[in-house]
Amino acid sequence: MDDDIENNITRNEEKGLMNKMSSLETAIMSVVWSFLLSQLN
């Protein structure tokens, strides 16, 4: 029973981390593209 609860907690933590990493990746790509486009302009 405890393993099921711990697995659910782990899955929730993993989903939260994936969402944060996805947001960070989007932010980094936005900064990189902005820099590249400003250099080309």
Helices and strands in order, then pairings?
Blueprint: H1 2-40
Features:
41 residues, mainly alpha, 1 helix
Describe what this molecule looks like in 3D.
By secondary structure, the chain is mainly α. The protein has one domain. Helix content is 95%, strand content 0%. It is rod-shaped.
The share of residues in helices is over 70%
Helix count from the secondary structure assignment: 1
Q: Number of DSSP strands?
A: 0
How far is the first residue's CA from the last residue's CA? Answer: 60 Å
Q: How can the largest sheet be summarized?
A: none
The total number of structural domains is: 1
SSE pattern, N- to C-terminal? H
Low-confidence stretches: none
From the spread of the alpha carbons, the general shape counts as rod-shaped
SS content category: mainly alpha
> Whole-number radius of gyration?
18 Å
Average pLDDT, rounded to a whole number, is 91
Beta-strand content estimate? under 5%
Provide a quick synopsis of the model.
The protein has 41 residues and is mainly α. Helices cover 95% and strands 0% of the residues.
